[in-house]
Amino acid sequence: MIEVNRKAPKALHQQIYDAYRAAIVDGSLRPGQRIPSTRVLASEIRVSRFPVLNAYAQLLAEGYFESRVGAGTVIASSLPDQLTSSKPAGSTHAPTPSGPRPVARRSSVLPRVVRFPWLQNWGAFRVGQVAFDQFPLGVWSNLVARRCRSSDADAFHYGDQMGSMAFRETIANYLKIARSLHCEAEQVMIVGGSQQALEISARVLLDPGNRVWVEQPGYRLAREVFALTGCYPVPVPVDKEGLDVAAGIKQCRKARAAFVTPSHQFPLGVTMSASRRLQLVDWAQTSGSWIIEDDYDSEFRYESLPIASLQGLDSNARVIYIGTFSKVLFPSLRLGYIVIPSDLVDRFHAVRRVMDLGPPSFYQEVVSDFIREGHFARHIRRMRIHYGELRSALVVSLSRELGPLVELLGDEAGMHVAVTLQNGSCDLEIAERAARLNLSLWPLSPSYMGEASRQGFILGFGGTRLTEIPNAVRKLRNLLAIK
């Protein structure tokens, strides 16, 4: 019954353990049945006694074997009946009923996770991809190594649940200058990216049954966060001035909150006008509502200086501001932040503590060094130039190759542009075909709630090489020509 293979990569004691356990589970060995002594088995299978001793010790520890005075080692009598079926070895066992498997009803509101073809390759136009070859990896590696060498015992303990105070001070100072925010370090919470920031914000601000304005089209994962909290997203149309506040008030004046991406709307890329911003802030104040501002890639603007944040216009502390390092550094860093109104800090802190006890501290210190020593500012300046060149090349290629076939939107800022189709093509079908040509075209239609009013694509250019853009656009033209 027990066989070993000396050439197998698995250790001898593990082979002996596995063979006995399998024989017990399939009923070949029954409770109370005596087994050979370690000395006898070692002699029979021609191995030293040590692997047999180790295997027996593990089986005894796990309760498969038991020792009896005067009888030696036997199969344990306390094993459950379903584990030691009386059916003969080799017979087929019917599946054992697992009993009830209840899950929370709220989990059913989320769509099944699907790996769409356009998300399974790293071809041209992948949304969210940054120019990895432009990142100052040497500088970053030196900062990481320096922090490793200088770590002491405190670095291995739990950190501040709000995040490193030094890092929060660095971020607050940066946001005051670069984004015109009104904030102090005590209002900053460090999180694992903007998605976690949105989840925490929803848990603090929203109750089941609340209604929340969302941009139409908009960021689908935001809608799913709100749905998971039992809220009802209210799609508010976006035009060339951003979220249509008047339309939102007409649809649902008493919404608990509004989620917006005012500096570079996702996915259309438009910038919310000053008048719309003031209307939105006024609505929040008069209706007692909240504004969640996702400022995910505002550092990159090409026709003018970066637009000041919505939070900077808010004199009544109605805006929860979310920022991230995923676009300005790299996505796998998983580092973002929330700027919280002072009177809500304790509420956010309490929810965050329950979720994960606080953020990892090591990379907070590294990024803090990266900012304080000027590397971050230099990197942003270089990337504005680099992304500006990519953006210009893409706009020129789209105009030359596609012309009237598409309408171009949102090319003034950020790391993506949107194109809407004018010939009645289905963006989902084209995106699937494009994936086979190593093009990562993110279809526009899934960004709508309900029926999509426009078909098109979100074209990320951050991770696409300058020389790749003309050929990639020609591939897109050929795909549009095939209907």
DSSP helix fraction = 25-40%
- The residue-averaged pLDDT reads 89
- Tell me the name of the CATH class of the largest domain: Alpha Beta
Q: Assign the CATH superfamily of the largest domain.
A: Type I PLP-dependent aspartate aminotransferase-like (Major domain)
Rg (CA only): 30 Å
How would you characterize the largest beta sheet? 8 strands, mixed
Structural class assignment: alpha/beta
Q: Fill in the CATH topology of the largest domain.
A: Aspartate Aminotransferase, domain 2
Low-confidence stretches: 84-92
> How far from one another are the termini?
64 Å
Q: How many discrete domains?
A: 3
Supply the CATH architecture of the largest domain.
Answer: 3-Layer(aba) Sandwich
> In percent, how much strand structure appears in the residues?
5-15%
Trace the largest sheet across and list its strands: 3-10-9-8-7-4-5-6
Fold and architecture overview:
The termini are far apart. The protein has helices at residues 12-25, 38-45, 49-62, 137-150, 165-178, 194-205, 220-228, 245-252, 274-287, 345-356, 362-372, 375-401, 427-435, 469-481, and strands at residues 65-68, 72-75, 188-191, 211-216, 232-239, 242-243, 257-260, 290-294, 319-324, 336-339, 406-409, 416-421, 442-443, 456-460. The chain is elongated, with a radius of gyration of 30 Å. It is α/β, with parallel strands linked by helices and 483 residues long. Strands 3-10-9-8-7-4-5-6 form an eight-stranded mixed β-sheet, sandwiched between helices. A four-stranded antiparallel β-sheet has the order 11-12-14-13, covered by helices on one side. The protein has a two-stranded antiparallel sheet with strand order 1-2. Helices cover 37% and strands 13% of the residues. The protein has 14 helices and 14 strands. The longest helix is centred in the last third of the chain and has 27 residues, at 375-401. It has three domains: 12-83, Winged helix-like DNA-binding domain superfamily/Winged helix DNA-binding domain (Arc Repressor Mutant, subunit A, Orthogonal Bundle), CATH 1.10.10; 117-126 and 378-481, Aspartate Aminotransferase, domain 1, CATH 3.90.1150; 157-375, Type I PLP-dependent aspartate aminotransferase-like (Major domain) (Aspartate Aminotransferase, domain 2, 3-Layer(aba) Sandwich), CATH 3.40.640.10.
